[in-house]
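User: Please fill in residues for this 211-position structure.
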């Protein structure tokens, strides 16, 4: 779905969960093909749209351990977070933070000695991701670009769904198609493709990709 203004995110919310009727969608990985496509911003706006008027209790989790930014975008402290849960056995309740947006909580990337690969490959990661479902009706997890790092490919099958973000007029169609293929090859449930920062004209090949 092409998105640009706030209204588009309410339509995206409707379409994402309308297409998932019959499925249990509680965790959604938001990922891009390349850097700078606005993945974190899309995750934040989706969370806000889902939580609007008390519809849902939503959690945002920063799994972009390479260039974390949710703490800044949601104006919370970049203190203990996901890394601390994996490396130190911290509970979600010890690291979750309330944001300024009613109904939206945040788990930052956190801090510690483990690098991104060590965290993703850790046997505790699956357990940590699973326990998050107890703290929110739906969780959006921000991940690094799928074509550049293995993180998203490892995490995608652990989620109920994946949303791929591509930037209008910037991301080559071939790269966007490859990103979509890579996600599907993991066996993950690709529930939507978002064309971010859309322009008035959308090339037919991109239109086919986003459905």
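Assistant: Residues filled in for all 211 positions:
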């Amino acid at each position: 779905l092409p998105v640009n203004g706030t209204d588009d995110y309410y339509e995206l919310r409707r379409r994402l969960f309308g297409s998932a009727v019959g499925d249990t969608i509680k965790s959604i990985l938001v990922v891009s093909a390349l850097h700078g496509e606005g993945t974190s911003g899309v995750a934040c706006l989706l969370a806000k749209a889902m939580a609007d008027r008390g519809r849902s209790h939503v959690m945002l989790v920063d799994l972009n351990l390479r260039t974390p930014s949710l703490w800044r975008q949601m104006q919370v402290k970049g203190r203990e977070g996901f890394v601390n849960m994996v490396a130190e056995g911290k509970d979600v309740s010890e690291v979750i933070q309330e944001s300024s947006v009613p109904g939206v909580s945040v788990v930052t990337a956190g801090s510690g000695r483990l690098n991104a690969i060590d965290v993703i490959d850790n046997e505790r990661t699956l357990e940590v991701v699973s326990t998050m479902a107890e703290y929110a009706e739906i969780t959006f997890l921000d991940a690094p670009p799928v074509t550049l790092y293995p993180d998203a490919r490892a995490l995608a099958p652990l989620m109920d769904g994946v949303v791929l973000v591509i930037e209008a007029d910037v991301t080559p169609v071939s790269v966007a198609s490859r990103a979509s293929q890579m996600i599907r090859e993991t066996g993950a449930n690709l529930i939507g493709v978002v064309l971010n920062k859309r322009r008035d004209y959308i090339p037919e090949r991109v239109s086919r990709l986003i459905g």
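For context: The CA atoms of residues 34 and 148 lie 7 Å apart.
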